[in-house]
Amino acid sequence: MKRREFSLSAASAVAASALTLPVATPALAQARQFKEGKDFRRLDKPVAPDAPAGKVDVIEFFWYSCPHCNAFEPALDAWVKAAPKDLSVRRMPVAFNASFVPQQKLYYALEGMGKLEALHAKVFRAIHVEKQKLAKDDEIFAWVAQQGVDAAKFKEIYTSFSVSNQVRRASQLQDAYGVEGVPSMGVAGKFYTDGTMAGSMQNVLQVVEHLATVARKG
């Protein structure tokens, strides 16, 4: 979903027509030559990677309310589990305007409580399958409480300075990578790709594997 396409009026149709995406493999990535300026772009100003030494920093930029991100999530999750061990893959919630911020805070508060692995996919399901509204603070607090999470503790973390800093950092990285839509991916603080550039999200995963190889070579 491009940053200007915020209307979700067609979300149901998109989700219904979305196909399960095959998981990319190194063999697939090697079968095609990827071109800078077409399948991916190099950042004009590199970003300092936030990954352990010896790891390749990989970021998925996403938005919980985006139907394309919802459709991509199962393929991404499977790919992450099978990815080379030297890839440091993380998700980063975007904010194209102020209305996105509550869902950014939702992501980071769940992460801060150690609940992200258990509830990340459930957030997508609540929005896209159960059609629940999780766009405002009170809606998020009510839903989290229904998941058996300590509501008071969640609210404390959600409104904390730490989460505010994480939201600010996410927005900085979003701008640094020049994110134009979601889902999209950044690699090694040097490269950016998305479905429009690569042709499909399946191709995006292949491009990421290719760029990780480039990054390993320095």
From TrEMBL:
Q: Point out the signal peptide segment.
A: 1-29
Provide this UniProt record's keywords sorted from A to Z.
Disulfide bond, Periplasm, Redox-active center, Signal
Q: Mostly located where?
A: periplasm
Domain Thioredoxin, which positions? 21-175
List where in the cell it is found.
Periplasm
- Similarity comment: Belongs to the thioredoxin family. DsbA subfamily.
Question: What name does this protein carry?
Answer: Thiol:disulfide interchange protein
